[in-house]
């Protein structure tokens, strides 16, 4: 009998981020972008270059996906042949931005910043989720029900963490779907909780009206994360 009562230490690991979560971080002091399937917090960069004109394209991209700035093969900024010099240069139709060198040599260009921000893994905060799902979590002890939007790739442990604001003792419950204990190391699909959004869409039915329900049964201890 497996239960989630005694919560073992979970690996920090990369957290999956739904697009909606990225979109809300759209201010200069709270600036996220996504590109090439990853999510980055560029707030420290925005703070370091505050007031710099080269920050403008990045500020305008806050909360958005900027994969089109990149060459998917090289994972570097897009390039083109500069018609003025005949040289291969970075291609930035959105405007030159931080760490992009000027098209022509200039005495005021300092290239001593180390790694350009798009190659600096320190800004990475997670992986962009390819698909999000809605689930209902019902506490059988209190009859409280909450609907969460979660990433399809997330394990049940990660979903539990998303649910903690509603129930600090979520780890003191056995999690079940259709009377079967869930494997907390697996995601929804692996726990046989099917994603039927496409089927409902094809049948012109509202998938949200058929959100799968996970039932929580209270154990005899109180575990807080």
TrEMBL record:
Record domain Cytochrome b5 heme-binding: where: 14-80
InterPro entries: Cyt_B5-like_heme/steroid-bd (IPR001199), Cyt_B5-like_heme/steroid_sf (IPR036400), Cytochrome_b5_domain (IPR052320)
Single biological process term from Gene Ontology: cilium movement
Entry's localization field: Cytoplasm, Cytoskeleton, Cilium axoneme
Pfam family name, one: Cyt-b5
GO CC annotations on file: axoneme
Main location per the UniProt record: cytoplasm
Domain of life the protein comes from: Eukaryota
GO molecular function, one term: metal ion binding
Family: Belongs to the cytochrome b5 family.
Record's protein name: Cytochrome b5 domain-containing protein 1
Organism of this sequence: Podarcis muralis
Gene name in the database record: CYB5D1
